[in-house]
Amino acid sequence: MEADFFHIRDVLTADERATLERVRDFLDREVRPGANERWAAEESPLHLRDRIRELNITGTYADDPSVAPRSYLLTGMIGMEMARVDPSFATFFGVHGGLGMGSIRECGSDEQKERWLPSMVRWERIGAFGLTEPLVGSGTAGGLTTTARREGDTWVLNGEKKWIGNATFADLVVIWARDEADNQVKGFVVEQGTPGFTPERLRQKISLRGVHNAHIVLDDVRVPEENRLQRANSFRDTARVLKTTRGGVAWSATGCAMGAYEAARAYAVEREQFGRPIGGFQLVQDLLSRMLGNITACQAMVMRMAELHDQDKLNDAQAALAKMFCTTRMRETVAWAREVFGGNGILLEYDVARFFADAEALYSYEGTRDMNSLIVGRACTGFSAFV
């Protein structure tokens, strides 16, 4: 039994369901085989970029008229299905299409959007997003240490970034830096190969090993004014991007939990102990039902979130609550799923170990549980408790 217990796919239109089925078929044929091997070898799914292009699901109609109009609900379900098969693939896709392209879409001028987004839709250029720093994660709104100094028509960037997905091979990396003149956060598109821009791949991760994260050093990196995102003038503009992508993480977390549940359910009906399948024992059935409860609650929340987004009514606190809730329930769910497997749960061949490990990264990035909780708390009370 799949983890769509309340048949949420039925709310899509016939055309949307056809698109989703096309994506599911691609994931089953191209992504699922070898997912564990890529994870173990720390290999990126970059080799699938041409096949992804053929799906025509990257970006929006506003980015390029070749992209079919798509609701936030369908976009969310696509992300959920990706994470249900391989959270590393979902993150690889989301960094490019959500964070990289989203920064340009939300904060770029019309000329910049026309210059970069069509080629990114076609995966001719891959994007990345550089906000987090070695010593600054949750405190990026007020403590960003990477600096930008204007010299004529050029900006000079100095600092470091860490955990930047896709950055070792991305063609365009959006770097967020604090302007020395007005102390405001601004966005800059740095092209791969720019002198002084050095991305070094982080290795030996225990989560999302199929994503190439980088530690970036920026040493007097010179960026032309034409590459400064013209509508990014403070961290409030950065937050516009994060509102959408936090919602995307909620969808991915739901998909990760679904993948873990489905692996556990399949194992429970086949694995025998005491002369019968373990799925026939009360304690195992209790774990499976708890997992489904968590998953269904998350599905209901992200579906409503997508409806609000489609109506242009989604606010930062709602996106933060979805990210906080769904990643917390995901973490609980993958632990229960791993429990069903007993000792086999730590072997990659059974899939659940990959979901169990990958959940840790989803739980942490795009704002920790605590930081998203404080965004929600501020909305509840009117008081900021961040410091």
Short account of what is shown:
It is built from twelve helices and nine strands.
What does this protein structure show overall?
The chain is globular and about 80 Å long. Helix 9 (about 280-310) packs antiparallel against helix 10 (about 315-340) and helix 10 (about 315-340) packs across helix 12. The termini are far apart. The mean pLDDT is about 95. Strand 8 and strand 9 (about 275) form a beta hairpin. It contains 12 helices and 9 strands. The strands form 2 sheets. Strands 1, 2, 3, 4, 5, 6 and 7 form a 7-stranded mixed β-sheet that branches. Strands 8-9 form a two-stranded antiparallel ribbon. It is of the alpha+beta class and about 375 residues long. It folds into 3 domains: about 10-120, Acyl-CoA dehydrogenase/oxidase, N-terminal domain (Butyryl-Coa Dehydrogenase, subunit A, domain 1, Orthogonal Bundle); about 125-225, Butyryl-CoA Dehydrogenase, subunit A, domain 2 (Beta Barrel), CATH 2.40.110.10; about 235-380, Up-down Bundle (Butyryl-CoA Dehydrogenase, subunit A, domain 3), CATH 1.20.140.10. It has helices at about 15-30, 35-40, 50-55, 70-85, 85-105, 110-120, 140-145, 235-270, 280-310, 315-340, 350-365, 370-380; strands spanning about 125-130, 145-150, 155-165, 170-180, 185-190, 195-200, 215-225, 270-275, 275.
